[in-house]
Design goal:
The protein is mainly alpha-helical and about 130 residues long. Helix content is about 75%, strand content about 5%. About 5% of the residues are buried. Strand 1 and strand 2 form a beta hairpin. Strands 1-2 form a two-stranded antiparallel sheet. The protein is elongated and about 80 Å long. It folds into 2 domains: about 55 residues; about 55 residues.
């Protein structure tokens, strides 16, 4: 398996499938006429695991490590403060010049945050 490839945890997939299966079966029993309900329940038992697999795979794809989320949040917070300083008319131009450099560096770090973060944590290259 590739290093960065993520798979859905089996417990997550099982939970999603169980929840969807229960919902689909109960819906079939309640809303479909009793004569047809058995066929729809049978179809649901075949379709629900496939849907559960794709939902679990999607969830796994959008999930990111907590450390990466915190790192991005700190960078975004830095950008907000740096932008406020750059827009302030009362701050001298020489200070703003240093902040512009920091702002550019922060933008680059934010743009490459996913590349810089590994399973072991943040990898910074100086």
């Amino acid at each position: 398996m590739a290093e960065g490839q993520k798979i859905a945890p089996q417990s997550l997939q099982a939970s999603i499938t169980a929840g969807l299966g229960t919902f689909a079966t109960a819906s079939c029993m309640k809303f479909i006429p009793p004569a047809d309900a058995q066929y729809w329940v049978g179809a649901a038992t075949l379709i629900v695991p496939v849907i559960g697999y794709f939902i679990a795979k999607w969830f796994s794809a959008i999930d990111e490590p907590e450390g990466l989320t915190q790192y991005k949040a700190r960078l975004n917070k830095d950008l907000v403060h740096q932008k406020k300083i750059l827009e302030d008319k009362h701050i001298p131009e020489e200070i703003k010049e240093g902040i512009r450099e920091k702002y550019t560096n922060t933008m680059l770090k934010l743009a490459t945050a996913n590349q810089d973060f590994t399973q072991q944590g943040l990898v910074l290259e100086e």
